[in-house]
Structure formats: structure tokens, C-alpha cells
Write a structure and sequence with these properties.
Layout: H1 3-15, E1 19-23, H2 26-35, E2 42-45, H3 49-53, H4 56-60, E3 66-68, H5 77-87, E4 92-95, E5 99-101, E6 106-110, H6 114-120, E7 125-131, E8 135-136, H7 139-157, H8 163-167, E9 194-198, E10 207-212
Parallel strand pairs: 1-10, 2-3, 2-4, 4-7, 5-8, 7-10
Antiparallel strand pairs: 5-6, 6-9
Length: 218
């Protein structure tokens, strides 16, 4: 069952010029994402646990596409930077998102900035895959979700040694009842550096959002 909340979000995404889908499982999300891709086209991804959990990374690396593989261990730092720049001209860019509001807003927080940059402009098509755990009521809920869930988990995964890894939440939550959106630590490895709210897409259906009825990623 999609439920009224999912229906509300799908309708809001449509109103915001983004195409929304709902599937029950990660496997169904992978199949749907694959159906939206053209064999031989240039595809790439933003850093994402969700894409790996659903098997989408394996599909992209299958040889059926020209895959710009940011995870290739043989890439030097200069080569990785060049790959990020090439990503802006990709036919399809796939990523997840930190939170989706009931008003159909995508809330994305990034460290390096390449992921939010591609979401905003460049690739012909952006496919966002998100588990039900990414759904929040509003932007306030999105901010708190990042500070209490996504940032600590991803910082630990990336061995960032930021304060939130130790405390389980952003330091800004300990200082004030209503922290500013961008409030946080000054750690050199901080991953919460760039904040984007995608409220409306100018190019209709350029962004496609696949909501999944499972918990995926952070």
C-alpha cells in the first residue's frame, strides 16, 4: 500500500515539476531505474549507500553503459576531480537524498559539493532513489534528520572523526533549541558544508524521484 502520505508526496513532486514513483522494494527500485536509462548512455552517481544497497551500482557497472565510476580505486585525486567535472555532461546522474518533505522538497547536504551541483544543473536526467526513512514532515524535520541521523552515520562510515561520530548528533543541537540550518562543527573533515533545497525543477521531469517502501541508506 502506498498510503496517503506517499500519495501526498507524489502529488507534491508533480506540482514541483519532478516525476515521482513509488515501489515496494529496493529490487523494484533498481529495475525501475534501469528502465529509465538508455543502453550506451553516459551514467554516473553521487556518493550513496542506497544505490549500493539496491544493486543499482552493479547495474551501472554491467557494461551496458558508459559508466563514470567514482569508486574506481585506481583513480588518482586529479582523475577523480576530472570525473566529477565530466559528470555534469552525463546523460543520467543517480543519487539518493538526505530528506524528502511532504511538500515534495528535496533536501540535500554535501561536503565536496559535486553531488548537489549535479542535482541542480548539468546532467540531462537525475534519478533520485530514497527509502521511506528519508521522508520527513517539513524542512525543520529535514534539518534535524541530517543532524541526528544522516551526518553522524555517514561521518562514521567515511572515518571523518567529527564530533557527531562520538555524540551521535551535531554539536549545534546541544547549543540551542532551534539550530540554524547550517550550524555545526568546524572540524576539517566536516561533511555538512553545502546545503541545497530543491523546491521546484525548472525543466519538467528532469528530476525523477523513486520512493521505496523500505528503509535504505542513512
Amino acid at each position: 500500500m502506498r498510503g496517503k502520505r506517499i500519495e501526498k508526496i507524489l502529488a507534491a513532486l508533480q506540482k514541483n515539476n519532478m516525476q515521482g514513483f513509488f515501489v515496494k522494494t529496493g529490487a523494484e527500485a533498481a529495475a525501475l531505474a534501469e528502465s529509465l536509462l538508455t543502453p550506451g548512455s553516459v551514467v554516473t552517481v553521487g556518493g550513496s549507500v542506497t544505490l549500493r544497497e539496491t544493486g543499482i551500482i552493479d547495474i551501472l557497472a554491467s557494461g551496458r553503459y558508459e559508466y563514470l565510476d567514482r569508486y574506481d580505486p585506481a583513480l588518482s585525486q586529479d582523475e577523480l576531480k576530472a570525473l566529477f567535472r565530466r559528470s555534469f555532461s552525463a546523460d543520467s546522474y543517480l543519487c539518493s537524498v538526505n530528506a524528502i518533505t511532504e511538500s515534495g522538497e528535496l533536501y540535500q547536504v554535501d561536503g565536496n559539493g559535486n553531488r548537489v551541483a549535479a542535482l541542480l544543473y548539468g546532467p540531462e536526467q537525475v534519478i533520485v532513489v530514497a527509502g521511506r526513512n528519508k521522508i520527513v514532515t517539513d524542512l525543520s524535520g529535514a534539518v534535524h534528520r541530517v543532524k541526528q541521523t544522516a551526518a553522524p552515520a555517514n561521518s562514521a562510515r567515511l572515518n571523518c572523526n567529527t564530533p557527531c561520530v562520538e555524540t551521535g548528533e551535531c554539536v549545534s543541537l546541544r547549543k540551542e533549541a532551534h539550530p540554524e540550518m547550517t550550524g555545526g562543527c568546524q572540524n576539517a573533515r566536516r561533511i555538512c558544508s553545502n546545503y541545497v533545497i530543491m523546491a521546484r525543477q525548472q525543466i519538467k521531469d528532469r528530476i525523477k524521484v523513486i520512493l521505496v517502501g523500505e528503509d535504505l541508506g542513512y
